[in-house]
């Protein structure tokens, strides 16, 4: 009823995260209505990303240059490496503007359920980066069971390298109410309490 | 930090209905991760829609042919016309598979707030379609204040054409609980009650 082109567009849109068939239909209609101002610029932007963006061969970040602009930036601290699950975590760290070192993107987490073992994470590639200049590896995997399993595995894996392997602190999120926090977080925050 | 191409993509995605800056970022990341299977096909699908889909010069529907496949279909009832706000309403009517006539898309509703007057709706174009063959116009604008104002305006506007102008019935939505219905709907349903 809507023609094969719009049908195909709706079908692809419904595969985007957070969009179901209904919202995909709404987005498709909006795009057709704004053909000149939104649909064509979006098509162009997608092609531009498809043509130019590649995976950094050093750290696994996405950028239009390889090595990526973070790896190539001489002002970044060359002695510290932050290990993250994916590029989404890397972006989150960069938005927070608190880390000045470089990254290492795992591309996944250890998961017995999904059949992802140590070999799938390419930890050899991480180890190969640990030449003499790197003093510390911060493992910033998520605070989930899989994230923490992965963090401990990496800590063990790098134990004989003679460098510091650290992890992000657990605790009360800034702005967080105790009322809404789970017991595990409150326990972790209490155990890691510090004197003023 | 993410490069100009991804930045531009995020900015355009955040202009889609239902997507804010956060979900646009999530969608952009997903697209970059699925470059071959999702990003490039989506770019192609958007270009295809941009190249082929046009507005039907008869009814205002979107289709790759003009007149659209509904207007051109000889099996559709040529004596009845359904007036809708936009193509979204037309799609909803078609999904319901209850209407066999043809459509007329207004492209908006009367709105003092948005400064949309009768001249902006192109009602002359609607009147021009009412040659001898059309016996009834069903005004299926939404059951909002603006939708109903528009419906009454159209009914007055076509009063001297000598054809039936009708509107969709108000009442309890099928599957609807009275508990969750507003008073206006319950009142309308009671006034329009029918004997079994």
TrEMBL record, chains A, B:
Gene Ontology molecular function terms on file: DNA binding; zinc ion binding
Biological processes per GO annotation: DNA recombination; DNA repair
SMART domains registered for this protein in UniProt: TOPRIM
Zinc-finger recorded as keyword: yes
Ranges of residues in domain Toprim: 79-173
Keyword DNA repair: yes
Keywords: DNA damage, DNA recombination, DNA repair, Metal-binding, Zinc, Zinc-finger
Bilayer-crossing regions: none
Residue spans, zinc finger C4-type: 56-71
Pfam families to which the protein is assigned, alphabetical: RecR_C (PF21175), RecR_HhH (PF21176), RecR_ZnF (PF02132), Toprim_4 (PF13662)
InterPro entries cross-referenced by the UniProt entry: DNA_Rcmb_RecR, Rcmb_RecR, Rcmb_RecR_Znf, TOPRIM_dom, TOPRIM_RecR
Family named by the database record: Belongs to the RecR family.
Function: May play a role in DNA repair. It seems to be involved in an RecBC-independent recombinational process of DNA repair. It may act with RecF and RecO.
Name used for this protein in its record: Recombination protein RecR
Annotated source species: Magnetospirillum gryphiswaldense
């Amino acid at each position: 009823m809507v023609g094969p082109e719009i049908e195909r567009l709706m079908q692809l849109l419904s595969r985007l995260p957070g969009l179901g068939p209904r919202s995909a239909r709404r987005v498709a209609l909006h795009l057709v209505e704004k053909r000149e101002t939104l649909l064509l610029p979006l098509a162009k932007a997608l092609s531009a990303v498809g043509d130019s963006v590649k995976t950094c061969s050093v750290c696994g970040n996405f950028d239009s240059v390889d090595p990526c602009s973070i790896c190539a930036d001489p002002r970044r601290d060359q002695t510290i490496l932050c290990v993250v699950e994916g590029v989404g975590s890397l972006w989150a760290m960069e938005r927070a503007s608190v880390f000045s070192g470089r990254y290492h993107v795992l591309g996944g987490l250890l998961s017995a359920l999904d059949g992802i073992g140590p070999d799938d994470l390419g930890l050899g590639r991480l180890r190969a980066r640990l030449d003499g200049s790197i003093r510390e590896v911060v493992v910033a995997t998520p605070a989930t069971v899989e994230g923490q399993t992965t963090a401990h595995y990496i800590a063990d894996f790098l134990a004989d390298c003679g460098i510091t392997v650290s992890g992000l602190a657990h605790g009360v999120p800034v702005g967080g109410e105790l009322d809404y926090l789970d017991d595990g977080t409150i326990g972790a925050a209490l155990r890691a309490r510090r004197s003023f």
